[in-house]
């Protein structure tokens, strides 16, 4: 038994898959005061998904919910989004063609490690490549399935970054709790030793006075 492949239709499906463009990039960086990134959107109307998580703060005794600021600007320099004092955020917007800018600002005196993820989805409408009424539903279904898979990966990466941050926070809080307990114990022992010393001196002084 042989399989018969309709080459023109197969080529159309392949072309449709190639035209479904999913651009994904992620970066983890350490910010001092300000860090800016840019990304060129090649097609008008692409959907841009962004997420970031402040993974950790480089301060042994520092724990804060202050977060960072993020300013998103379009090709014309106009503001698209402006987030203030966020430790994590996830959002999306429909972009215009051109260079977009993403600027993070850290207002704390400590270096912070940020996980930044971008997913740009674009799909060339299948009618531009396929006129077959039987292929159109298939191509549309393929496009939706691919977009759903990329969205799941995007969401999973964001959740993993959140989990990593929480693990670091819990570990830092545990270490601080241990150090606090140690210093409290040391202070209590020191106070007890001082109290014994003072009582002993007082007792010796009274004993000396009674002998006189």
Automatic annotation (TrEMBL):
Keywords, sorted A to Z: Membrane, Signal, Transmembrane, Transmembrane helix
Localization terms from the record: Membrane
Repeat found in the keyword field: no
Annotated ranges, domain GOLD: 34-120
Membrane topology term: Single-pass type I membrane protein
Signal sequence, renumbered to the chain: 1-26
Predominant cellular place of this UniProt entry's protein: membrane
Domain of life: Eukaryota
GO cellular component terms attached to this protein's record: membrane
Cross-referenced SMART domains: EMP24_GP25L
Protein family per UniProt: Belongs to the EMP24/GP25L family.
PANTHER family: TRANSMEMBRANE EMP24 DOMAIN-CONTAINING PROTEIN
The name this protein goes by in its record: Transmembrane emp24 domain-containing protein p24beta2-like isoform X2
Organism: Juglans regia (English walnut)
Annotated gene: LOC108987121
